[in-house]
Amino acid sequence: MSHLPNVRYLSGFTGSNGLVLLTPKAVLLFTDPRYDIQASQECDCKVKVVTGSVWAAAAGELKRRRIGRVALESAHVSFDQWASLASLMGKRVRLAPVKDAVESLRAVKSAGEIEAIRRSVALCSRAYESAIAQVRPGMTEFEVAAELDHAMRLLGAEGPAFETIVASGKRSALPHARPTAARLKPNQLLLVDMGANLDGYASDMTRVAHMGRPGARARSMYQAVLDAQLAGIEAVRPGALCREVDAAARRTLKRSRLDRFFTHSTGHGLGLEIHEIPRLGAKVDARLEPGMVVTIEPGVYLPEFGGIRIEDTVLVTETGVEILTPTPKEFLVIAS
Fold first, then answer.
1. pLDDT at 307 over 90
2. What is the set of domains in the chain, with CATH numbers?
3. pLDDT interval class at 88 (50, 70, 90)
């Protein structure tokens, strides 16, 4: 395994260069001399510190163990890495692609992982509340994003879990908008999508505010998205199909004739990465299980008006769902 979140999950190693050889009897981490001390402190498996390529070292270990079939992560191993390993191993070793072998294990969180995500979610919410109180008309989207990121750092985050999204006015209709130098103006929507990385675990939350008192259109649109988000949360339970959660949110938006402006899936798993399985999409037949942590985030995006998305991180429990995000979901008004 070479995908670093999977390496961390299997071995505890958090460095930038690591390769895990996983056999029925052993877990072996290969890394380079920069991480000699770190790996010995972090890992609960055998560590081999090597000079040169970790792939070449792994090939040597495979030959020594006389392993004839090796599975590689198809989503993460480059063609050059595959070809290099094939050349090093020769014809007597068969390389086979495998998908989501570790990711499927990571989808159901342990008690320790759930606690780590709780802390990350709580930190993210505190940072939002601290930073949003500083927001005023005339600030740029860049400045708002900087306030949010700074607040997360001050509270102890390793950093944002992804590039913080701040979008005002019509730009809020861009689901993955990047902050710009655009200044906040009165009578505009302000969308913030943020997450913290704390002890390696991500959180994810979206809230929408309005610069000044919102008009009837903005209020009705906000209520429609909130109703859809609550319907999606209510549909989360053990055994539920991911597409059923997505459908619950879309049915609610359809009552307001806004479902065609909902252009992405209802949510996704998170943990060591901000996007993990399962995905709560219209065609996903995977079932939710206790211990899964997912987001519920329907949105409506009108190009000439703006966008509204409301997102919480939730935990699938033995009996239903627990909302982890503590931030209120009232339509926040920022004085203009």
1. yes
2. 4-106 (3.40.350.10), 111-334 (3.90.230.10)
3. confident
